[in-house]
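Record 1 of the preview.
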Amino acid sequence: MSLRGVRSFHPAVMLLYYVVIIIGFMLSQHPIFLMVGVGFLLCTQFLFDKGRQLKSWLGMILTLAAFILILTPIFNRRGNHILFYLFENQVMLEAVIQGIMIAFTLVGILLAFISLNQIITQDRFLYIFARISPQWALLSMLAVRFVPLLKRRLMEIEEIQKVRGFSVTKGSLKERVKNGMLFLQALLTGSLEQSIQTADSMSARGYGQQKRSHYQAFPMKKQDAYALLFILITGCLMIFGWWLEDSVLSLLPVLETTKLEQRECLFLANWALLLAFPVWAEGKEVAKWKYYLQKI
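->
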């Protein structure tokens, strides 16, 4: 995993950046704005780890997007342009466009959270929130890592049980259900035992009784100030474009054309510039590394 460029910035700056990106996906309800946003986030994922982290979430993301694309035109029948009839129900063009925008919004927000999870490590998360509420920060960090940890343990248990002849994919339905319950029993038992061990270890080390004796600090640098100024300016312009409704496609009462006017193109360029920040930070480091390799 690369992440040399974006992790050189202060954790609070990068957290603010992705908060602004998520707000941008919720406000910029225009197909072109949303597609540009998703495209830049996909490029970011490719630069981070060539999409390896994205592959583990791709099935869920595509499934949710497909459900939204299918269900929105079925349940939303408001509009003026009828595309066709499905079981004697009208399917409106406005509903199809709205389904596309909701799907792209969801995909963009999920991609932003995946990128944020790659950048904000456990040390960075604790550094940001420990001063505000140490117990809440620790509890949140444990909750975030709980699901991936359970998933990894369940895969290990399943591989071990396959050697013993137990499987949830082969045999009758009764046998598969029984084996699945045994897997869950082993998973919960092991997780509870390890949680007790973790609590005893923290208690033995005196966690929470006094100030921390060791932690990783992330001081603010000049590049962080420049990045913060860039995020605030482009973020404010993004909100201003939403307030002018230049980044919003009007569906009702009249369907607006998706063609962008001159002022809308300026706000689209600002949105693309904001999204290009991690691409520039990572791409710069990749270019430097390739240049040094050529020199060697």
